[in-house]
């Protein structure tokens, strides 16, 4: 048994090493050329930004509209219309808390930016202060939505505890650990210049180990599930890396990525960031499949102590195939739901050649396929590892 485990461990390390090696070669291959091509544009952007920031300071606060002084509409060139409100705000947070300030709220035709002021409502407000003159300008930039998130979060945790009991509480702890790993390890490492894909692999391994230990406990199921999950996620990362290199994809198809690229504070490998996002997005589904297969094989062995390795493996694969079908649909539908506006645009234009070559579309398809393939690979990997671990053991119910 020790030889079997040692062999699995060596194979896994070799597999992961191969994935990381290919990753570094693929992601760093064009980094120097990419940097040179974008250096000029980025320099211009940052210089303009610095000049404007020298004389002004931006801050954010919450404020309540206590009075609407004026509300008018005007026609703009091109047939557009704009509504302008003159409002009085009561500052609710920050150093100006309790003070009243006048603000002009411009409401364009575009509903994405139309923040309509109403008396008694609370808004997120941007304060721009001129450091030379001391003048302050206030703008309503978004609605106050924080309370809704808190209510939704409390309902989520209460349902987990009420329905799941102690298991639900352990789920909350594992979720907190996973979020902490992303917030305090993955994000800071990317900000400091670490390859995002390498950071995602390490963070995924840590999150998997902690989640399995908290949910399943310290036992053979956790070991097999962890190894199966890491193998599946590594395959996803390897596939994502190859597609990003061969397509090729820049990692700058989203608005958020372009904002980061224009920010002078970070030097980020955006191809690696794209691959890292694909790994993290499929991690939960792969963990779900792996622990389900491990638990099933364990219970089968308890009920049938004389089952051989081959019988245990086939039983695990039968369970895995059923889970694989539903979880594959889960991943595809999750990505499809997020891309519905894009799908409507494609349906309206009816030009598949155009959209199947757009980076935004290819990125979404790659994320879906890479995650799904990693999930599929985790099924036989977990079934084989778990069968090897328990085929010659006499087990008791956990």
Explain this structure to me?
The chain has 398 residues and is α+β, with helices and mostly antiparallel strands. The chain folds into 2 domains: 62-146, OB fold (Dihydrolipoamide Acetyltransferase, E2P); 151-390, Multidrug efflux transporter AcrB transmembrane fold (Up-down Bundle). 66% of the residues lie in helices and 14% in strands. The chain has 11 helices and 5 strands. It has helices at residues 2-28, 31-54, 146-191, 196-216, 220-246, 255-261, 270-303, 309-338, 340-349, 352-355, 359-390, and strands at residues 56-75, 81-91, 100-107, 122-130, 136-143. The chain has a 5-stranded antiparallel sheet with strand order 3-2-1-4-5. A hairpin with a 5-residue loop joins strand 1 (56-75) and strand 2. Helix 5 runs antiparallel to helix 7 (270-303) and helix 7 packs antiparallel against helix 8.
Q: What descriptors fit this protein?
A:
OB fold (Dihydrolipoamide Acetyltransferase, E2P), 2 domains, alpha+beta, elongated, 398 residues, Multidrug efflux transporter AcrB transmembrane fold, 66% helix, disordered N terminus, 11 helices, five-stranded antiparallel β-sheet
The number of strands is: 5
**CATH fold assignment of the largest domain:** Multidrug efflux transporter AcrB transmembrane fold
CATH class of the largest domain: Mainly Alpha
- Secondary-structure element order, N to C: HHEEEEEHHHHHHHHH
Backbone CA Rg? 26 Å
| Beta-strand residue percentage | 5-15%
> How far from one another are the termini?
21 Å
Low-confidence stretches: 1-52
| Coarse shape | elongated
Question: What is the tally of helical segments?
Answer: 11
Give the second-level CATH assignment, the architecture of the largest domain: Up-down Bundle
Instruction: Determine the mean pLDDT.
Output: 83
Biggest beta-sheet profile: 5 strands, antiparallel
Helical percentage: 55-70%
């Amino acid at each position: 048994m020790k030889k079997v485990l040692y062999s699995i461990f060596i194979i896994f390390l070799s597999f992961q090493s191969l994935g990381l090696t290919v990753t570094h070669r693929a992601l760093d291959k064009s980094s120097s050329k990419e940097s040179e091509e974008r250096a000029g544009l980025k320099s211009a952007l940052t210089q303009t930004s610095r000049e404007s920031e020298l004389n002004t300071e931006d801050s954010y606060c919450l404020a309540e509209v206590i009075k609407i002084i004026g509300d008018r509409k005007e026609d703009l060139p091109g047939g557009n219309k704009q509504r302008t409100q003159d409002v009085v705000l009561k500052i609710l947070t920050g150093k100006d808390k309790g003070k009243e300030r006048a603000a002009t709220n411009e409401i364009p035709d575009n509903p994405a930016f139309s923040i309509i002021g109403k008396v008694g409502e609370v808004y997120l407000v941007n304060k721009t202060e001129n450091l030379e003159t001391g003048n302050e300008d206030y703008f309503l930039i978004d609605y106050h939505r924080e309370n809704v998130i808190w209510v939704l979060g409390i309902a989520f945790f209460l349902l987990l505890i009420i329905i799941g009991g102690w298991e639900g509480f352990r789920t909350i702890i594992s979720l907190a650990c996973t979020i902490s790993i992303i917030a305090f390890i993955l994000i800071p490492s990317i900000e400091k210049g670490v390859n995002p894909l390498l950071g995602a692999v390490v963070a995924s391994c840590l999150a998997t180990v902690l989640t399995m230990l908290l949910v399943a406990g310290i036992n053979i199921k956790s070991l097999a599930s962890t190894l199966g999950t890491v193998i599946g996620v590594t395959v996803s990362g390897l596939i994502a890396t190859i597609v990003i290199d061969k397509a090729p994809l820049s990692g700058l198809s989203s608005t958020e990525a372009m904002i980061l690229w224009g920010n002078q504070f970070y030097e980020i490998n955006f191809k690696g960031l794209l691959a890292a996002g694909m790994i993290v997005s499929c991690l939960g589904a792969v963990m779900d499949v792996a622990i389900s297969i491990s638990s099933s094989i364990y219970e089968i062995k308890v009920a049938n102590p004389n089952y051989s390795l081959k019988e245990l493996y086939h039983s695990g694969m039968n369970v895995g195939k059923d889970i694989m079908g539903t979880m594959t649909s889960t991943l595809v539908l999750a990505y499809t739901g997020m891309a519905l506006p894009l799908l409507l645009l494609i349906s309206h234009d009816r030009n598949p050649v155009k959209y199947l070559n757009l980076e935004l579309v290819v990125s979404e398809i790659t994320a879906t396929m890479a995650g799904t393939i990693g999930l599929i690979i985790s099924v036989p990997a977990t079934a084989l590892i778990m069968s090897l671990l328990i085929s010659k053991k006499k087990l008791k119910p956990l």
